[in-house]
Write a structure and sequence with these properties.
about 30% helix, 8 helices, two-stranded parallel sheet, alpha/beta
């Protein structure tokens, strides 16, 4: 299969230097493989995603020197490229999981639901879901509509998920210890980050996912979804995070390192890229899929 990579920003604020570095590595790997790069607008968070951030996202990425072959601004064979326009697909995937008995309805706090809206960075992750709150096996099997209730994926307790990452090497996570039953559908009618990303990466034929290393545990969750759905997972390459002077992971609220702030200060993309320490592995595109060894 030809290499297909993707960059997937969320328009909840202005993109910063950390986004740019990860997306630049994704572009490098796609170019080295002579492959295709897809831009996907992950705009499922209705409360925080704004049109002005979506416009700024495209402007900032173009200014920084990123170029994609498919996306919301240029189309492609897998339109639409905005997640808010792909809800029909996500509902089909939810039904497949329900038919297989992989998921169940679950009462959920508002705070935990909010966490499911965006990528679950490891320092923000919720504690493992208590198994005593699970309903009996088979609850929810065969449901055809999620209704106004949250749904969780039932993880296989104590199973170790092992996968190879293109940058981090062998990664291990234990179900029920490092993460528990996780949300796949929210009671407001939207899928969680995990379900939406797996669905889109599969349908868009992504062969390698390049993203920040704070999403390694998220990859373990997603591998369980791939297995339940009978889909081949892509390869993974998790990049080191860009941190501020205090060692804190950059966030969109850190406007000092936002791309448009740096541009207003007269910094050039070439100057900013020259300050990065290159990753030796980022020059060689992956050719194998990452598979759980369990």
């Amino acid at each position: 299969m030809d290499y297909r990579g993707r960059i997937a920003p969320t328009p909840t604020g202005y993109l910063h230097l950390g986004h740019a570095r990860t997306f630049w590595i994704a572009q490098q790997r796609a170019q080295q493989a002579g492959g295709t790069l897809i831009l996907r607008d992950e705009d499922l968070d209705r409360d925080r995603c704004r049109p002005e951030f979506a416009v700024a996202m495209l402007e900032d990425l173009n200014w920084f020197g990123l170029h994609w072959n498919e996306g919301p601004d240029c189309g492609g064979p897998h339109t639409p490229y905005r997640q808010s326009e792909r809800l029909t697909l996500y509902l089909e995937v939810w039904r497949e999981l329900a038919a297989g008995g992989w998921i169940y309805p679950s009462p959920q706090s508002r705070q935990d639901v909010q966490r499911a809206l965006t990528a679950p960075h490891e320092e923000d992750a919720e504690p493992a879901f208590p198994v005593e709150f699970r309903p009996p096996p088979g609850t929810g099997r065969g449901a055809t509509e999620p209704s106004a209730v949250n749904w969780r994926f039932r993880v296989p307790d104590s199973e170790e998920i092992v996968f190879h990452d293109g940058h981090c090497g062998e990664v291990r996570r234990i179900c029920g210890v490092d993460f528990g039953d996780f949300l796949v559908w929210r009671k407001d009618g939207f899928p969680s980050y995990e379900l939406a990303v797996v669905s889109d990466d599969h349908v868009m034929e992504i062969t390698e996912v390049v993203r920040g290393e704070d999403l390694l545990t998220s990859t373990a969750r997603q591998l369980l979804l791939y297995r339940a759905l009978g889909w081949e997972p892509p390869a993974f390459f998790h990049c080191p995070l860009v941190r501020d002077a205090q060692g804190v992971r950059l966030a969109k609220r850190n406007h000092a390192l936002a791309l448009r702030t740096l541009r207003e200060q007269g910094r050039s993309p070439e100057e900013l890229r020259a300050e990065w320490t290159p990753l030796p592995e980022s020059q060689a595109a992956a050719t194998k899929f990452a598979k759980p060894k369990n």
